[in-house]
Amino acid sequence: MEFTPTTMPWRDCYKLLTGAIIPRPIAFVSTLSKNGVANAAPFSFFTAISADPMLVCFSPMRRGTDGAKKDTLTNIEETGQFVINIVSEEIAEKMNICAMEFTPDIDEFEASGLTKAPSEKIGVPRIRESKINFECELEQVLHFGEHSGAGSLVIGRVVHVHMDDELHDQGRILAEPLHPIGRLAGNFYTRPLASTFELARIVNSGDKK
Q1: Rounded to two decimals, what is the model's pTM?
Q2: What is the domain extent for residue 60?
Q3: CA atoms of 58 and 138, how far apart (whole Å)
């Protein structure tokens, strides 16, 4: 079976992406509007870029109804700051509430029952219930269209990290107490630690990395 994206409706392209690229980590992004209204929204187009500088990125798509920017993107462009909160299974239901399309005057923390915690380096609140928080300053944002189905790439420079003590062990992060979840297609999620296996990387004798 073959597909040519340029000949397909964007929703079908979206289904191909979200069905094939799995599981996806979830960036639970908290922001603050220029009027001081807190926002929290999940995005599963999310990954790391580099360690030095420590850069992360996520991609908010345009609204499917009218192609408008989502509140998260607008807030980041206006303030230059955001927090990426890692999602554990314990807050999955509250995260799902924040996936709803609220109007810009609604505080998603209040709507979902999440708790605001102060950040160290930026003015945006982090989610206290999240076990890992990355405070970010906007490095760059790239836009790829202004229509439904289009998206933007938001690159953030991590300026501070918060982590529950139970997760840290001699420089490494313990995945078990994090209870991470991943996004699949449709309404489905996965517990990535439910079944794991180890595969040691093969190192070439001439590899200088």
Answers
A1: 0.94
A2: 5-190
A3: 11
